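Fig. S4 source data, part A: sequence.
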Amino acid sequence: MQEGSPAFAMMVSITTAVYRHKDKNLPFLVYLRNPTTGGVLASWGSAGHFTFAEPGALLGFLGPRVVELTTGTPIPEGVQTGENLARHGVIDGVISPSQLRTAVLKIVSVLFPAEKEEQDVDTRVLDTEVNVERSAWESITITRNPERPGLRHLVEALSPNTVALSGTGDGRTSRAVTVMLARIGSRPVVLIGQDRHKQPPLGKHPLGPSALRMARRGIQLAHELQLPLISIIDTPGAELSQHAEENAMAGSIARHGRLHCADTGGACRRRCAHRIHHPRAGLWGWRAGHAAVGSRARGRKRVALPSSPRGRVGNYLSRHLPCATHDGGTTGVRAGACERRNC
């Protein structure tokens, strides 16, 4: 798509119409054909909740010839293609025109299921070890088991009722975090999940600023479509590196405020929710245990963390998180879990 002067003058009005549509909590899907450049891509072409392109489509703010004439330097071949922009998180994927109808129907079926599906779900507590007290080290050992259930198992269970987003929409992507539209029974939701198998020491992709920005896109999507947000926290912690510092790791956590991170420093920010479930033997804290030990032991004898389950494991948190009766229901501890007298 390319616009002339009259169309260019209408770009503001067109973009305003798009955002009025989105303000009604309605989805906006964008499909970019070859070529799409200039004001189209710089306005409503980049305003979609989901954005796809046809294979081999030329996509760019300016076409390659204009770039070369303006700067004197040719833009490398392949940069302004839908495939390359999808790899860099600018768009969500490449779909051929023959597959477009199927892709749109899938998104619509997830967002607006035709019929209510009855789910045969036992809502009772399934954990038979409710009263089991473990030492902190036993909890750590369970948490470090690479075979324990995680994000992959959940995504597999929800398939095929999922539509994954590829990145932030502004040129960042991270394999440490998955953001997708999903359907659980008859309820559409936005799922943000941290995949520990992609993060060190099991993988090569730390939970860095790009991962937090991806999560922020998912949060914004849930807000704009008025959908429940499900956040799966499963990470050893935020990235600690020169790259993280130079890309505002701390600022990314701060801007997530009550939005996103992990259950150590990079994750505690994601705990502000209407309802929180914590796995038994799961670790929680501002910093990982080894980081806390290192902070306390520099230049001195190492100081171990308490060996009891108190303070850093789910068994303790389930008893000490605020309850709906005493604290206004902001954290959603289930009824009967509060140990305060007469609660």
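Fig. S4 source data, part B ends here. The radius of gyration is 23 Å.
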